[in-house]
Amino acid sequence: MSAETGGREGTTGAERAVPPRRAVPVWARALGIVMGVLTLVLAADAVLAFTVQLNSAAIDQGRVFELPVSTERSLTVTVTGADVQLDAGRPGAVVVRDHLWVDAPTRGLAAALARGAPLTIRDDGSVLRVEAPAAPSADVLGPSRRRSLVVAVPPGLAVVVRSSGGSVLVSGVDAPLDLAATSGDVRLDGMTVDHDVRVRAGAGGIRFTGTVRGADLDLATSSGDVDVRVPADSDVVLDALAMQGVVTVTGSWDVPVTDLAPGQSATGSLGSGAGGTIRLLSTAGDISVRADTNSAQSRKPAAQG
Q1: Is the peptide bond before 91 cis (omega within 30 degrees of 0)?
Q2: What does the DSSP 8-state code read for residue 142?
């Protein structure tokens, strides 16, 4: 039995056919070549970028300017490709802090690019102008650059801000404000609006936190949401329109919301309505008005007769 079994096994092994090799499709060969080339390109790019990073030199410069000014004059701030922040300052002076950071393959190139974006301050006797251009770029591999501008605004000094390509933060400023930002979010924190405040945003949201007292707060954006938070005991008139969005009024206020299809509007009084006006507009976005229960309205004392 074992001999017969062995004979059959030997015959099977001798007669086994070798399967033919499958031909590799043309598309597979082409894909392999392309992947190989891409691998080489990515490897070379990584080596070049690593080499540039090793040889890079950064310029990190900060400058401070203190400019005397009276409230009979005005301040105009123009910023391109950078973030800007307005803070509450002390009376009689505008303080400008300019921070410019440029990283390039060589220190000489970084310094040249930094010199190509100078901060400009001009005073014509009635208007103080501060202009901060974007830091110029060299090529794809470098340099990296950032700029930020912080301006301390004295109380009561009228301010005009024009921003393009950066965010805007206004914190605690007590002054007339006219702000326009073509792109980037606008945030107004800790504000006491007893001077008119007007904000226009192109592509970006607007957020306001603070108090409105006897003045107009006018916020409008073409593409973005508007979020307003005021004390629960506010006394203002509200006029809100979301042309293609939703209007939400949260708090103890009895303000009706009207469906306009596709948008909504809300018009009414928060409290007595005697303390100012809040106008809100969003062309493509939602509007939210909320009561800040953690903050009570800080009212000016009534005049004593």
Answers
A1: no
A2: B
H/E/C letters for each residue in 227-264? EEEEECCCCEEEEEEECCCCEEEECCCCCCEEECCCCE
Tell me the helices (H) and strands (E) count for the chain, helix number first: 3, 21
pTM: 0.76
**Distance between terminal CA atoms of the chain?**
130
**Could you tell me the two tokens for 160?**
């005009």
* pLDDT by residue, tens only, the chain of 305 residues: 444 444 444 444 445 555 565 666 766 666 777 677 666 645 544 433 333 333 446 777 789 999 999 989 999 999 998 899 999 999 999 999 998 887 777 777 777 777 777 899 999 989 999 999 876 654 444 557 788 999 999 999 999 999 998 999 999 999 999 999 999 999 999 999 999 999 999 999 999 999 999 999 999 999 999 999 999 999 999 999 999 999 999 988 889 999 998 999 999 999 988 889 999 999 999 999 999 877 655 444 433 33
Is cis: bond before 25, omega within 30 of 0?
Answer: no
Provide the sign of the torsion angle of the four alpha carbons 28, 30, 36, 41, taken in this order: negative
CA distance linking residue 63 with residue 96, whole number of Å: 8
- In this structure, what are the phi and psi dihedrals at residue 55, rounded to the nearest 5 degrees? -95, 0
Dist. CA 14–CA 211, nearest whole Å: 97
- Listed in sequence order, the DSSP H helices in the chain are 2-15, 26-55, 107-115
